[in-house]
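Dock iron/sulfur cluster; give full complex structure.
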Amino acid sequence: MDSEHILTQLRAEGYLISASYQDSDLVIVNTCGFIDSAIAESLDAIGEALVENGKVIVTGCLGAKGDVVWQAHPKVLAVTGPHSTNEVMAVVHQHLPKPHDPYEDLVPAQGIRLTPKHYAYVKISEGCNHRCTFCIIPSLRGDLVSRPVGDVMGEAEHLVKAGVKELLVISQDTSAYGVDVKYRTGFWGGRPLKTRLTELATALGELDKTGGKGVWVRLHYVYPYPHVDEVIPLMAQGKILPYLDIPFQHANQRILKLMKRPASSENVLARIKQWREICPDLTLRSTFIVGFPGETEAEFQELLDFLKEAQLDRVGAFTYSPVEGAAANELPDHVPPEVQQERLARLMLLQEEISEQRLKRKIGKTITVLVDEVDKDGAVARSSADAPEIDGLVYIENGQQLRVGDFVEVKVTGSDAHDLWAEMA
Ligand code: SF4
């Protein structure tokens, strides 16, 4: 999102964007400072830009981490933190004066987005009020700041008018939307609207005038607070996609407590059951950390038992790795890497079987998909169960005549643990 805001501002002021170092007057590197591998990658990218171009501005999370960038690359022009479009633009103006007479209409109605034209990410808040012990996002990005609901709706409406077919709602903690402003009532289209997840999801669902086949709304990073139950009926009614990306991270209460996870004491299994009763088509995606400090074999086994019971559709799992500055580093009894790897392999094996079985049940069904790519071999699409980049795909073997961004009905003919194969219904 930061990159998109900066690009939009650059284009609005008449600057041109180039894909090569050689054709550019200066380079802006947007960095990530979340995990050590991302830091190394960001520092490499800065080094490459310095060698290839020489004039480099650094922005993003890594910029917020003290002197890391200056120490590694003292020749950069400036270092700013995340959400610093204004600071970045000030440095750009200093080193590359504004072009004369910028055309105001250089920016298309939807702004500049880095995702393909038919889907877009809508960020509803920044920062986080939690302090999960493995995470340093709050120290990089600060406490939760919710965007005004009218602004979020205005942006979403704009995107839909510009042809976007899928809105992906993101934030660090989507369920907490509005907590910081005490769920203040804002305005959208002349009517009052609360700064709150249920109200926002309802209003986003109303952007689609065709009953679920014109605009998809997908919710990411939803923590299982009690009020999340309120969005499930919206999913059952087809107003927003029946899809919840809900990072549980573990199932054992002691580990969840050590992680300081939000809403960890809610009775998750009972609620999943209830959600599926209300919305049988619900897709659940979650992520888990394996080998958190102190995790015993019995506690890990509890996580496996949870997965067997929960029958989640999509799961991402990672071994715990210490992030510089994270409180969990100080916890005792770190799990040896070989034990972590062995547990990860066991978890993934189990989940693969579950995902495979769940996808198999779709064979023979007719589903709606959104086309992402078309070539001579057919079309590649996604169903309501597949978020871009992270979930599976639907391969349509006789879909050569389709267009990117089309919604189509297909009959599922095959499946594996991740993807589906289908033909035009
Ligand atoms: S909820 Fe926890 S993991 Fe997510 S951003 Fe906040 S502190 Fe980090």
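Observed: Residues 229 and 275 are 7 Å apart (CA to CA).
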